[in-house]
């Protein structure tokens, strides 16, 4: 859940080449000039980045490292209870630091021998087609900033905890990484905005907010659930529906609250058969037909 309707804070370019992150008044860091200056500096690193170069080093405060340490510790305990085994195995293989915020370049180097995925720093909102299409090349756009230290278990926008603890651990699994790549290939293949939105909604209800049956238990594999201190405790009580590409691709969702409709894969094989095959074969014509049957 990201409780601010903006989802990402807008980033404005200044005449002197610097950038300003326009935080909403409701943002926990709005009245903190030190945090805001650091947000601006971190966004500036991404604005000037060229793909293929080493990702610039982001500076964090001790308070921010403490936030990472606290949230990492608390989420790890919840993951052992609620996360699918594929995620747990991938997280162990990746071995993220527990006591400090890792640099995106560092995480990329940890991912490289496992699945080949690498990060691209993002200042804020990335256009939909650009965000998804680079997945085909094993790249993932990620923010570098972290939530305000005053509210360590809440963020009004995706931060480095979501991007690295949620997506980074997932991308350390070759089975999950293959699905990300297929989503990227689908985004490149389709041409209409409607088809791209359909592809993105399937991604949202699976790799962001997907759940899966393991034995008799319902477990989470979506990065949005696995990086949320509160939502991971609530997902089993939501409206759980069968995995269905047509329904997922046409369901409207609200990013400002916990996702109350989730789609359950019967197994990892089931996820790959249904969603993986859809992304591997979909085109504009197929999606147009699916949308008419919804």
From TrEMBL:
The keyword Membrane does not apply. This is Phenylalanine 4-monooxygenase. Belongs to the biopterin-dependent aromatic amino acid hydroxylase family. It comes from Herbidospora solisilvae. GO terms for molecular function: iron ion binding; phenylalanine 4-monooxygenase activity. It is an enzyme of class 1 (oxidoreductase). Signal peptide: none annotated. Its cofactor is Fe(2+). Gene3D superfamilies: Aromatic amino acid hydroxylase. It holds the Pfam family Biopterin_H. Residues 1-294 form the Biopterin-dependent aromatic amino acid hydroxylase family profile domain. CDD domains: arom_aa_hydroxylase. Keywords: Iron, Metal-binding, Monooxygenase, Oxidoreductase.
